[in-house]
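Notebook, student rotation project (T.W.).
Task set for the rotation: take a protein with a known small-molecule partner, predict the structure of the complex, and write up what can be learned from the model alone. Partner molecule chosen: 6-phosphogluconic acid. Sequence and SMILES entered below by T.W., checked by me.
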Amino acid sequence: MAHHQPPNAPILISFPDSNELVDSLAKFIAKAQKDAIDKKGRFTIALSGGSLPKMLRGLIGNPQIKWAHWQVYYVDERVVPLDHPDSNHRSCKEHLFSKVPIPDENIHAIDPTLLNDLEELSDAYEKTLIHEFAQKDAARFPVFDLILLGMGPDGHTASLFPGHELLAEEDRWVAYVDDSPKPPPKRITFTYPVINHAARVAFVAAGKEKAETLTTILDHPEEGLPSSRVKPAFPGQLYWFVDDAAASKVAFPRTPFQL
Ligand SMILES: O=C(O)[C@H](O)[C@@H](O)[C@H](O)[C@H](O)COP(=O)(O)O
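Predicted structure of the complex:
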């Protein structure tokens, strides 16, 4: 019997190896960028940390990418100095931004003078989002052109961890945690309302260590793990870019990659 998926069900795309994943992800990002720039002259994207930054290497030297039109934000950030080894900004700089001609002012890092006050730090980052989004349309939440996420072994995404009270946050755009089970404990993070208002959201997950969790996320969303709660509102669309090792146990139907 054919699987009948609701109109904006997740689109799962699996690649035989991570190089193919990297190339296709770059094409997908280039397409999202082109659509956004054609429509409004800029491209708003939010990046995660973890293993994601190095999966963006297909963007390096890619003539389709119009870096001057990118506005880059962080889905979540560890509350550490910007040059600290744990910083997501540092990781993105190392793996990507130091290798491409993006203007510094287009990359929106946390305010390093506010590391001692989590409330102020998350408020200040929320204000940078308000500055980007609120003037143009009066929407209650920002609409990113693309949000890129990773999935942790416990099913977390961004800094939204299983069983945490932040899973129920409905108002704030940016919140903080001081008890992250994945070190470091202090982080700020986008909330679900922000993630779920994006035009496109894409998870990137590779490796056999992710197989068990990916099955729970996609085949058993009723378990409510944080990554299963990413459900962009129509017309938003969720994608999973994975490798065959990560998808080895998943029953959820795959879709061939197409732009
Ligand atoms: O700050 C972080 O830790 C990341 O933004 C986080 O949300 C990450 O995406 C997941 O933990 C997956 O991490 P891996 O990709 O390293 O498995």
